Amino acid sequence: MSASVAWQSLAGIGLMVVIAYGSRVLGLLVMSYVPLGARVRRFIDAMSSSVLIAVITPMVVHGDGGTKLAALAAGGVAIAWRNPLLAIALGMASAAVWRWWWS
């Protein structure tokens, strides 16, 4: 790898660090001036779920059978028993069993 490519890579990584850290700091600064009423709290609470769904949905749609089975099992357990630890464990176990037997 040439020195130019190495410096460009380091500059890109540094820029990503600055942008990621800056967005978090600016978010905290902006939110320090926003009054946290009931409506804002509901919005913030819903953001974490919507981000999680946006990250997981493409993996489930384009994933193999193990991914789909894991999502179905984890979702079913989360809805039925409202136990996230059990849902994660069952999702992981079902994906492992699927991949053990059918891959």
UniProtKB/TrEMBL annotation:
Keyword Membrane: yes
Transmembrane segments: 6-31, 43-61, 81-102
UniProt keyword annotations, A-Z: Membrane, Transmembrane, Transmembrane helix
InterPro entries registered for this protein in UniProt: Brnchd-chn_aa_trnsp_AzlD (IPR008407)
Recorded superkingdom: Bacteria
Protein name according to UniProt: Uncharacterized membrane protein
Organism: Billgrantia gudaonensis
